[in-house]
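The pair is set out directly below:
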Amino acid sequence: MTTPSTALTETHHTLNARFSEVELKFPPAHTAWSIWALGAALYLTGFFQRVAPGVMTQELMAEFQIAAAGLGHLSGFYFYAYVAMQIPTGLMVDRFGARAVLSWGALVATLGGLVFALAPDLFFANVGRALVGGAVGVAWVCTLKLAAHWLAPRRFALASGLALAAGMAGAVCAGVPLRWGVNTYGWRPVMLVCAAVMAMIAVLIVWIVRDDPSARGYRSYFVAASHMPSDTTSFWQSLRAVFAYRNTWLIYLAPQGLTGAAISFGGLWGVPYLVSVYGYTPAHAAFCCSLLLLSWGIGGPLFGGLSDRLRRRKQPFLLCVISALILWSSLIYSPVQLPGWLLLTLLVSIGLVSGSMVITFAYAKESVPAPLAGTVGGVANMGSMTGAMLQQPLVGWILDRSWHGAMQGQVRVYDAAAYQAGFTLFVVWIVISLLAIACTRETQAKAFG
């Protein structure tokens, strides 16, 4: 016979079991992807800011009275701060969570956007670019951190690819649409609108984003380990922990050739190159560069998903880098001016294979213990942007050294030989990436250990 006390106890256990079942459910897909999407939204606007100078080269060079090297540095200030923030971002995300870091990043990016849009001289323009670059530099690592908590591990490379696609959508908006906006309203009003958009994203992040599904009563996909770094772990101790793994060093170098060439061409030097060498209008040249960046965004989820299905990181990455080397060489060293259809085919193909750089992040995540995911993500992202950070001003420096005195208004004009000399840097860097990937250890898409 069941007593009231026994019945009450059984009811209590039943309710606890049911409550535990609810607690153990993973978050619904729409909730998980919505939270991931806000990190991707900041990355999108950051990418817009990243490549915008490439469409405004004439306006910026005339406004601030600078040559190619000066323009390279103006664009490069974004990357100097962006790269410098990657390892600190990884450490901050591991300790304070993605939500807090994303929120502050969006707010500072808004401030930087305002400073750049209202800059009275080159100094303040550089400061604005640096503030934006450093602030949005948190977006990629935070987005991947959110993906690790909210999405199934088998979706991680896909989420990385879709985040890259979001960035490329921002880059496409910084192509023909930005050119139209600059022609219609001027570059400063357009940049002010971009700052307003980043402010709105900051509000939504604070309102909606949470670090882990447990904050919403769901089960987390993130599995913590007993060797989670403590709050007293120093900056250098955390770095040593990550760089103790050989793959970290190699994966830092692996994406530099792909991203450096694609961003340097698509985000800065491609438009003036196509205008000067091919005689395209700025709008037509911006369209061509947008196609490269758009196909890069398509290549991200394509090769990220393929890598997941094959359960291989090294082989698809290696094949894509070899393809990029052949494609860039065909474009740069062609003895004749390429017909329009072939030029576009090369640019689209380059963009597609460059999208394989997203494999870097899954590769890095699988090469170290889970608690170091944020830190190694920062290292990997720092590597992916180091190529662009160095190549943009270096190409400008080579262009200035190869300049033969031609001017159009107040702006220098560079010939085909000058661009060929500058773009040779792309080929050299891709070879370095190729060698680095060849020396990595395959993870077979498995978590560390």
Observations:
- The domain at 33-212+235-438 is CATH 1.20.1250.20 (Growth Hormone; Chain: A;).
- The radius of gyration is 23 Å.
- Residues 117 and 191 are 5 Å apart (CA to CA).
